[in-house]
Write a structure and sequence with these properties.
126 residues; six-stranded mixed β-sheet; 4 helices; globular
């Protein structure tokens, strides 16, 4: 049975050795700090999973402080790769803007399909 953590604008769970995150609405500094805390706790409980998939298809807005928090928290966190699911033009714009401005130190790739993202995350394990 999957343990699902729910915040005011996200769900976080583990599926097949990958931390899965679904976000919606608007991300601000407070909501981002809550999500980061929950993700860190989940990683610690599960043996420090190295792969993350974030579905931002229903995300509407991300504050500057939220972007900075995500960029700094994932750098050096032990996470090796993040697949970002973007199923519409707005989510693609948000993700591209984040990647262009923040230049994260880990591998991040955009996908429309969750299964393709899972395949990419796992390709260096074989």
């Amino acid at each position: 049975m999957k343990k699902k953590i729910k915040t005011n604008n996200s769900e976080i769970w583990i599926e097949g050795g990958i931390i899965m995150i679904r976000m919606w609405g608007e991300l601000n500094e407070k909501s981002t700090k809550v999500q980061i805390k929950e993700i860190k706790n989940l990683r610690k409980e599960s043996g420090n999973i190295k792969y993350v998939i974030v579905d931002i298809s229903d995300l509407k807005k991300v504050s500057l402080k939220a972007r900075r928090i995500f960029a700094s928290e994932y750098s050096g966190s032990g996470v090796r790769k993040i697949g970002v699911i973007c199923k519409n033009p707005l989510s693609k714009t948000i993700a591209s803007f984040f990647l262009g401005i923040n230049k994260p130190a880990i591998l991040i790739k955009l996908f429309e399909d969750v299964e393709e993202a899972k395949k990419w995350l796992r390709e260096d394990e074989y």
